[in-house]
Amino acid sequence: MKTPPGVAPSRLYVLDGLRLVAALLVVGFHLTVFGDAWGGPDGAALPTLSLYTQFGWLGVYLFFLISGFVICMSAEGRGLGQFAAARIIRLYPAYWFGVLATTAVLTLWPVIREPQRPGDVLTNLTMFNDLMGVDAVDSVYWTLAHELRFYLLFGLFVLVRGYTPRRVLLFAAGWLIASLFAYHSIPMLTDLLVPRSAALFVGGMALFLIYRHGSDIYLWGLVGASWLVALQMIGTVNPYAPSRTLLSSTQISMVEAVIVTLFYLVMAVVATRRLTVSWRWLTTAGALTYPLYLLHEYIGWVMIHYLHPALPAWLTGLTVVVILLVASWLVNRFVEKPLSGWMKRRFAAARNSAYLRTSLTDRPSGPRPASSTPAEEPAPAPAPAPAMAAAGPVPAMRTPSSIDGPTMALPQITVGSTD
Q1: What is the pLDDT of residues 222-268, one digit of tens each?
Q2: Fewest 10 Å CB contacts: which of 50, 80, 194, 378?
Q3: Considering all CA atoms of the chain, what is the largest pairwise distance in Å, rounded to the nearest integer?
Q4: CA Rg value for the chain
Q5: Is residue 299 within 8 Å of 102, Cβ to Cβ?
Q6: What's the pLDDT at 351?
């Protein structure tokens, strides 16, 4: 059953499912293709499986596509401060645990990687370590740096003046174009505009506008442009591949292009409301994806290193994935939820504090009163209503369109814990 544009279902379970698919693709790639933990060449431990999982690294780009969609969803009806608080609450609790847990495991069992120095670990806790030239505790955390740049640009160019679909469209198109100039001509901006990932975020934003406001040539044109740029940018990446592969480099590139195209097609089906599911268990599955992503690589490799000598390769891999899924549920249940709830209350209390509720222009310009509790000022008298005859004819009200006007009051959508 299709839902008309502008009327949102209470939950998009399908995005929770897609996030789980993306996470499992990345986990499969890191745990089966890299040979470090297995003590052999890349992909040699599970040669048949690695022929397929070698493309799992593309799951990161499905994450980015979903992120562009979901961030627009969560930004509707919010100001910059609320948006920033929501992103901090969403990202940091599990991330802090992931940094500390990975460091602890590598300190106790430094068989795959050496742990970072204590000062570098503390820097990692800020999530801005790449800006300070400090390596990440786990190499997969590079995606979080790209996410943070997306949030920064989105906040500065969309939310500072207030969210509207038109501003989202202009920002998305401008970012895509600017990222191409930065990639080829302005290297100094490359780190800020992340051209290899920008197209996926842009595609997700355009698809959300289609989902929320309906199709038009501008939005589909932006989706098509982002898809073409994404194909080009992903083609510049040289990922790890199994030591024995049946595919040539050209064939590998073709498969990558097909997979990325499939991601866009699936998200387009979601955006046009032709794919909806009501499986409530996907909410829990989607909530596991972020902790799973944060914990799986180095900790998974350490487990493989010790389990592989005692178990067949397939059972080792399966056991590690199950342990990581259970650990992810525990992190979500006992770390993310309690700490996120505490942070929400603290941010809400801060928003209600006097210095944030009262702008500088609302404060009296004269000297402060001696009393610690300033007297209440009388409310200004209401201005007299102008006579209708003097005001002239009342202009006809203009109904804002889906793109060039402010967002209309619409029901909110929740997608797992992404908000």
Answers
A1: 999 999 999 999 888 877 777 677 788 888 889 999 999 999 999 99
A2: 378
A3: 91
A4: 25
A5: yes
A6: 82
Q: What is the pLDDT of residue 104?
A: 97
Burial status of residue 352 (CB atoms within 10 A of its CB: 0-12, 13-18, 19 or more): exposed
Task: List, for residues 284-326, the tens digit of each pLDDT value.
Answer: 888 999 999 999 999 999 999 999 999 999 999 999 999 999 9
Three-state DSSP state, 11:
strand
Report how far residue 305's alpha carbon sits from residue 301's, in angstroms, rounded to the nearest whole number.
6
What is the residue whose two structure tokens read 């908000």?
A: 419
Full-prediction pTM beyond 0.90? no
Question: First vs last Cα of the chain: how many Å apart?
Answer: 26
Instruction: Give the separation between CA 100 and CA 418, rounded to whole angstroms.
Output: 22
Of the candidates 3, 61, 54, the one whose C-alpha atom is nearest the C-alpha of residue 29 is 54
Please tell me the distance from the alpha carbon of residue 56 to that of residue 315, in angstroms, as a whole number.
Answer: 20
> CA nearest 167: which of 252, 80, 253, 276?
80
- The answer to whether 299 and 105 have CB atoms below 8 angstroms apart is yes
What pLDDT sits at residue 282?
87
pLDDT at 388: 37
Instruction: Check if the beta carbon of residue 44 is closer than 8 Å to that of residue 388.
Output: no
**pLDDT of amino acid 355:** 67
The pairs formed by 356-361 with CB atoms below 8 angstroms and a separation of 24 or more are 356/81
**Residue 216 in tokens:** 């038009």
Closest to 336 in 3D by CA, of 344, 348, 346: 344
User: In terms of DSSP H, where are the helices of 272-280?
Assistant: none
Distances (CA, A) of 283 to 51, 278, 280: 31, 10, 6
Question: Of 31-35, 38-42, 49-53, 366-370, where does mean pLDDT reach its minimum?
Answer: 366-370
Residue 51, C-beta contacts closer than 8 angstroms, at least 6 positions apart: 43, 242, 245, 246, 247
* pLDDT surpasses 60 at 373: no
Read off the tokens for 239: 């990922």
